Amino acid sequence: MAQLRPITKSSQQPSALGRSEWLAELAWQSLIAEAELTPKPGLVDGRGSGSHSDLSLDLMRRSADAIAPYFTRMALASADAQMDTSLRAMVASIGREAEAAMLRATSGSNAHKGAIWVLGLLICAASLSEGSLPEFVAEAAGYLARLPDRARPQAVSHGDVVLELYGATGARGEAYVNFPHVAKIGLPALRAARKSGRTERDSRLAALLAIMSHLDDTCVLYRGGPEAQKIVHEGAARVIKVGGPGSPKGNAALIALGQELVSQRISPGGSADLLAATLFLDALERGLERVEQDNSLVEENNGENRVQLSRGKTPPHQESARWCSGFR
Questions:
Q1: For the segment 259-268, what is each residue's pLDDT rounded down to a tens digit?
Q2: How far is the C-alpha of 225 from the C-alpha of 212, rounded, in Å?
Q3: Considering the entire predicted model, what is its pTM?
Q4: 242 near 182, Cβ under 8 Å?
């Protein structure tokens, strides 16, 4: 994992600023952990860009770095605040600033628009309530999401296009119903895999696959329609059925699924954003100072922590990664 910045656990520094910085740091670390998790089917990871022509692991890290300060601002704005339309408007405004910072850092590529929305809401809920139970935080975040944002831009997003064509509600809809793919699918799969003795890497891959097997992912639908979504659902379910990550058959099925998704340029970016949310709520519930490292990059490079990445500017691309709905 990228070098973690030192942070102070909220129980050691109970001020609003201390808790806000802790929550923002956990969110930043969750984004880095998701990006570095390897091997992920169709997604940017330690091996390369997956199904993307405009993203790399270096760009994902730069994007996470760029938006981290806005997570702190969201948490501070929510501390001791009332859950009302004024807070909703303030958080939405900060979120749109975070999106602009992300686009500057990535030269126009959408690395984390959906994640800004998802993690931003969860951070605000955790800051306002000072709670740590995932279901409670997700419910509070859903309430905040459902409040009207009168300043929301009217521009049509990829998520709006998918909603019109296929009825999938994307990141916005996930938030409106209290993040069920995180609280009821991702987290239970993560816990079950750990309990069974899987490594942290394989446990996170198991959580990702569980989400992929159920989620109507607007990034998948925008790129390939229902046919692509069927490939993702059935492929993820197949990996789980034959033993899951960490088993010989499961590992082989996972690699085969990744090859199929890359060959058809299918990227389950919405599932990746929800995995980051899963890791955030998991660390919050366990009171961790930092998201645990899973050694994905070390394992992927035969014990050596080195990954060759392309650096420099990457041209914008209209099919950028991740969920298409953010603070819009």
A1: 999 999 999 9
A2: 15
A3: 0.88
A4: no
